[in-house]
Task: inverse folding
């Protein structure tokens, strides 16, 4: 949906732009074979899941060691990090295996690739929204830790809140990076984006005439 709105906006901008016309560009170079496009998308997924798995393992190792050597809010901080490490490692592992299977059976049709591309981009946007919620919850728990009448020890709320701020911040950077990477990769899938031409004082969309659709 996001990409469809973007394409509609580009069309409106191209028809309303003023200035000298810009010569059409050769758009065939921007197009890639659909199986190769599909395989590159799964490769980007695998790389991202490797990063997520590495972050999960580092949480398990560092916080697993520090948990038994700390007390107070620091102990709860590492306890929460261990939980995040377990969940993230499970998600990264299952996702990586699924991406490897997808690499062996790339999508060969444009409609399927478009659906998968939009689904992938929307997934990272949704995850980024969850990351913002984690950050907000972290700030809430820190504030709750300052309340002496809280139902749990203040040190627990502070430790959990600090962990949520760390995990939410890292995941927000990760999901944002993955979205930008996949969005750039997806440009070669949408022919209209490759026809966007910029000139001095003008922006336009080059629409070829007199060519039969394949």
Result:
């Amino acid at each position: 949906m996001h990409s469809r709105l973007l394409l509609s906006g580009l069309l409106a901008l191209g028809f309303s732009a003023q200035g000298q016309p810009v010569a059409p560009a050769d758009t065939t170079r921007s197009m890639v074979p659909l199986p190769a496009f599909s395989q590159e998308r799964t490769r980007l997924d695998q790389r991202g899941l490797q990063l997520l798995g590495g972050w999960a393992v580092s949480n398990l190792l560092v916080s697993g060691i520090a948990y038994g050597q700390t007390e107070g809010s620091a102990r709860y901080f590492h306890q929460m990090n261990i939980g995040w490490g377990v969940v993230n490692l499970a998600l990264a592992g299952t996702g990586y295996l699924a991406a490897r299977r997808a690499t062996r059976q790339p999508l060969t049709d444009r409609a399927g690739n478009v659906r998968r591309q939009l689904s992938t981009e929307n997934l990272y946007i949704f995850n980024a929204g969850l990351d913002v919620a984690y950050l907000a919850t972290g700030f809430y728990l820190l504030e709750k830790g300052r309340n002496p009448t809280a139902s749990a020890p203040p040190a627990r709320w502070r430790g959990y809140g600090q962990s949520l701020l760390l995990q939410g911040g890292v995941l927000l950077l990760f999901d944002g990076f993955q979205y930008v990477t996949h969005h750039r990769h997806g440009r070669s899938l949408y022919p209209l984006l490759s026809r966007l031409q910029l000139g001095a004082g003008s922006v336009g969309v080059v629409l070829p005439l007199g060519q039969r659709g394949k």
